[in-house]
Amino acid sequence: MDGTEHVPEAKPEAEPEPAPEPEAPVVHRLDTPRDGVPPVTADRASYEAAVEALRNGTGPVAVDAERASGHRYGQRAFLVQLRREGAGTVLIDPVALPDLSELNDALEGVEWILHAASQDLPCLAEVGMRPSSLFDTELGGRIAGFPRVGLAAMVESLLGLSLAKEHSAVDWSTRPLPEPWLRYAALDVEVLDDLRAKVLEELDRQGKLEWAREEFAAVAAAPPPPPRIDPWRRTSGMHRVRDRRKLAAVRELWNSRDALARERDVSPGRIMPDSAIVEAAINLPTSVQALVALPGFSGRGSKRHASRWFEAIERARALPDAALPPHTVPGDGPPNPRVWADRDPDAAARLAAARAAVTGLAEELNIPAENLISPDLVRRLCWTPPAPADEERVGLALRAYGARQWQVDQLAAALTEALTAKAE
Questions:
Q1: Is the CA virtual torsion 238, 241, 245, 249 positive or negative?
Q2: Which of 10, 19, 301, 387 could form a disulfide with 271 if both were Cys (CB 3.0 to 4.6 A apart)?
């Protein structure tokens, strides 16, 4: 021993035990509706009975709609499903009964439960159905931070039930609808009330329920989306088309295909794929034979109407330069952020700081950044910030751009600070 005092080495503090992973629920396959598969309501007498049953039911009503996307033109509903305690499940054929406003009146003041409501509300509005209030289980799941928010995934993780989804992309305009499809449709609304209860419980536990209710109210009150400007510009593969005359060819081909699809009530992609439009526009063939030799024209629909497509190309070829479409259509918002650094370096710095603030807060709150605040709203705020950019004015600007109050409360301070960023 050398006489030096030996102090025992301090033991490191024990790491806290991580929260145990929740046990995966035992999953049971849900094959049959609890009340059986109801008949499709397709005549006036059964419709009136269904309206009365739903009117006299209790609690919220689960609502869903099936479209024939990829088969028919447009996004209209071909089956509407509803379920309410005391009324059971109702399946309505909106082709036979195109005006459901009487049912809508019967449900006035009743909360609707939908999953991904913004997908179904437009086609429901076409048949006269508009909720006065709603609970969106998909949107609620996003706000609660669930990693997967598809209906089947949420039903499995929260309810321990497996939903078959093999009929989700079938042609719902088929008549009569096969019994397995109707079983699938009935099950989709059967699970929504229980799913709502689980999502509501989790939102309440996290202190986010009022946030979600503000979001649901905004979805219910949203006006119909305006018609798209130059919808032909959304043709898949358009990035390959740079010449204005070739852009005109895309426009003429797209419009010709759309008119034929509307006339035949067929999804445009079943007549001619987008890839064929782009190939024809890039190559501008000078004969029908050269046109059908291009990639994408091997399908029967593309070949059958080859002369129609060639006429569209000829129209584009004959346009004077002044009538050719511009490369881009000016929007009502700020320019593409890719050009900000050159056009306004300070705005680019503000945007970078704002994006970092939103990302950090989204992670902290366990909410997808796009649900915490619209990226377009952030761009608008950073391109034209209020002056002076204090928290009150930033909050007013956020509200003017459509942000909900909970978003203002969470973000106004962080975005105010971001708006002081300057280019180095």
A1: negative
A2: 301
Query: How much is the average pLDDT of 143-165?
Result: 94
What is the residue-wise DSSP string for 199-238? HHHHHHHTT-HHHHHHHHHHHHHPPPPPPPSSGGGG-TTG
Q: What domains, with CATH codes, occur in the chain?
A: 28-221 (3.30.420.10), 231-323 (1.10.150.80), 337-418 (1.10.150.80)
Tell me the angle at which helices 244-264 and 274-283 cross, rounded to the nearest 10 degrees.
140
**DSSP letter string, 32-101:** S-TT-PPPEE-SHHHHHHHHHHHHT-EEEEEEEEEE-TTTSSS--EEEEEEEEETTEEEEE-TTT----H
Q: Which residue has the tokens 């397709």?
A: 42
CA 200 vs CA 141, 210, 219, 253: distances in Å: 9, 10, 17, 48
Each residue's pLDDT tens digit, 271-323:
999 999 999 999 999 999 999 999 888 777 778 899 999 999 999 999 999 99
**Distance, CA of 256 to CA of 279 (rounded, Å):** 16
* Contacts of residue 5, Cβ cutoff 8 Å, sequence gap at least 6: none
According to DSSP, residue 321 is labeled: G
Mean pLDDT value across residues 137-142: 98
Residue 419 CB neighbours (<10 A) = 25
The answer to whether residues 248 and 316 touch, using CB atoms and an 8 Å cutoff, is yes
